[in-house]
Amino acid sequence: xxxxxxxxxxxxxxxxxxxxxxxxxxxxxxxxxxxxxxxxxxxxxxxxxxxxxxxxxxxxxxxxxxxxxxxxxxxxxxxxxxxxxxxxxxxxxxxxxxxxxxxxxxxxxxxxxxxxxxxxxxxxxxxxxxxxxxxxxxxxxxxxxxxx
Length: 148
What we know:
The chain has 148 residues and is an alpha+beta fold. 35% of the residues lie in helices and 24% in strands. It has helices spanning 15-29, 35-42, 46-52, 80-90, 123-133; strands at residues 66-75, 94-100, 107-116, 137-145. A 4-stranded antiparallel β-sheet has the order 2-3-1-4, covered by helices on one side. Helix 1 (15-29) packs across helix 2 and helix 4 runs antiparallel to helix 5. It is globular, with a radius of gyration of 16 Å. It starts with 14 loop residues before the first helix and ends with a strand.
């Protein structure tokens, strides 16, 4: 089953989801050490955070295009990473970075930062649906990044 994505204005996002984004920012910045500390500071319950933590990430547009970090859990099988990179290249995106963990129990974590440049605006049709349907991709998460 393919995951669907929506691009909506911040003022249309429920407050609880906006707070989840703020908790993630605190955790990523290192300003807090635990989810409990971050959730308390932002004014959200830990259970609300855990309920939505994988469902919302902040998305930024940059002047030179959109820069996304795609984090995937993939099967440790020959050709899976190659197939991922081909989908990205065929979509006209520029690969900025690739990081892959050592596979454990047959699964590796791959993080790929890509720059979506002019003429490739429909990110969902271009890559995301194709990546999610790709055999060997178990989980896909998108995180927006501003600048390079």
